[in-house]
Amino acid sequence: LLVPGAYLAVDFFFVLSGFILTRVYLPRMGRITLGGFAFARFSRLWPLHAFTMLLYVIIYMVSVYLAKGVIDVHPNWRGNDFRTFIENLLLIHNLGFQEKLTWNYPSWSISVEFYVNFVLFLVLSGLVVKASRARIFVVLGATIFICMSILNQNLDGLNGQDAIGTQWAYFLNAGTLRGFAGIFLGVLVASIVAFFDDHSEIRFSTSALIVKSLLECALMGVLFYIMVFSPDGPLDFIAAYLFALLLTLLSIGAFSPIRRMWGLKPLTFLGMISYGVYLCHAPLLQFFKRWDSIVGEGWSKWEVAGIYLVTVVIVATALHYWVEQPAQGALRNFWKGLEEKKRKLGQSAD
After folding, report:
1. What is the rounded (10 degree) CA torsion for 49, 51, 56, 58?
2. 96: alpha, beta or left, given left = phi > 0 and alpha = psi -120 to 50?
3. Pair 263, 250: CB distance under 8 Å
4. Which of 67-76, 119-128, 168-177 has the highest mean pLDDT?
5. Confidence at residue 2, expressed as pLDDT on a 0 to 100 scale
6. pLDDT at 113
7. Average pLDDT of the chain?
8. What is the pLDDT of residue 254?
9. Which residues are registered as beta bridge partners of 29?
10. Distance CA 231, CA 104 (A)
């Protein structure tokens, strides 16, 4: 709505997701099963996805009614039927079953994230064995290069439906390639950071820390330029690499003004509700794109955009506290209950 290259935030999300999941789960490998990992990811991703999909339908219908039939705001609505609803509900909607985005369309990346996580579990299982790490890093690097090369060769940029649904194999499309590249980049970043964590004797001189901070500022500036002034072009294909490099620099070394800035309470809060922001912004957009028809004319686009952004933050906050956290807690308690029953059955059998 305000930033032309905002779609690149999805690729940053993939990188950050791979980084965080590696940091959280790699130390736990051997103590967690594939089923436990998959259910943990399901409890994190699915409840809010399902809720906001229903929210999309409700807001769309109400907005159309209030706007007296103004319906053709997003053409993907024509692909919304019972079959695509079930596919979205099962998180398989970006695995080659649909020709275009449907329902709460930003959730295509949640579909990619969930199923790439199964491959990620195998990667993390291999990284536990130190002797195999070098080979795995080579495979990850090659996969990232191949995925980004295919995208670069076949697409002009990473905006629009072609950058998500262009198909090469039944389940392997542009969106899936972006997911693999971004998440695997995050794994490599986490591995580099872990190396520095394990070698605390490595010290950065004052001049090195200053250079690192300048590089961080430069990378922030380049990413800002790409997203605001040069979106949907060849620079799209290096944005994820630049973000991965920025994340690496921010995560090593004690001195980092930008990391301190990101640690401010308002930005920490926005990070906490970011999943809700991502999944509710499209449903709410159905209302705000009909603003003139519903509320009346005379509003500037900046006034409408400001009200929209505040509304997104308020709704995302409510979703975080009233849907996301309670649902995730309930599902994880359910899984713990099953594990406990399984353990007791095993003890009684002995």
Report:
1. 170
2. left
3. no
4. 119-128
5. 62
6. 93
7. 83
8. 66
9. 32
10. 23
Q: Is the pLDDT of residue 44 over 80?
A: yes
Nearest alpha-carbon partner for 9 in 228, 214, 189: 228
Closest CA to 187 of 115, 244, 234: 244
CA distance linking residue 154 with residue 348, whole number of Å = 59
Q: In one letter, which amino acid is 42?
A: F
CB 206 within 8 A of CB 249: no
> How close are the terminal C-alpha atoms of the chain, in Å?
62
Per the structure block, which two tokens stand in for 237? 């294909």
Do 34 and 262 meet the contact criterion of CB atoms below 8 Å apart? no
Pick from 100-114, 165-179, 251-265: least confident: 251-265
Query: What tokens appear for 254 in the block?
Result: 């004690």
pLDDT score recorded for residue 347: 67
DSSP state of 170: S
Nearest in space to 183 (alpha carbons), one of 133, 226, 244:
244
Give the Cα separation of 303 and 336 in Å (integer).
48
- Residues linked to residue 32 through DSSP beta bridges, in sequence order: 29
How confident is residue 81, by pLDDT bands cut at 50, 70 and 90?
A: confident
Contact 10, 279 (CB under 8 A): no
How far is residue 283's CA from residue 292's CA, in Å, rounded to a whole number? 17
| Residue in 221, 212, 317 with CA at minimum distance from that of residue 259 | 212
Q: What is the pLDDT of residues 251-298, one digit of tens each?
A: 887 667 777 777 778 888 888 999 999 999 888 887 787 776 666 677
pLDDT at 317: 95
CB-CB neighbours of 203 under 10 Å: 9
Within 10 Å of residue 45's Cβ, how many Cβ atoms? Answer: 20
What is 106-133 written as a DSSP string? GGHHHHHHHHHHHHHHHHHHHHTSGGGH
Q: Taking CA 337 as the corner, what is the angle to CA 335 and CA 341, rounded to the nearest 5 degrees?
A: 120
How far apart CA 54 and CA 60 sit, in angstroms, is 10
Tell me: pLDDT of 156 over 90: no
Q: How far apart are CA 100 and CA 234, in angstroms?
A: 23
Contact between residue 193 and residue 248 where contact means Cβ atoms under 8 Å apart: yes
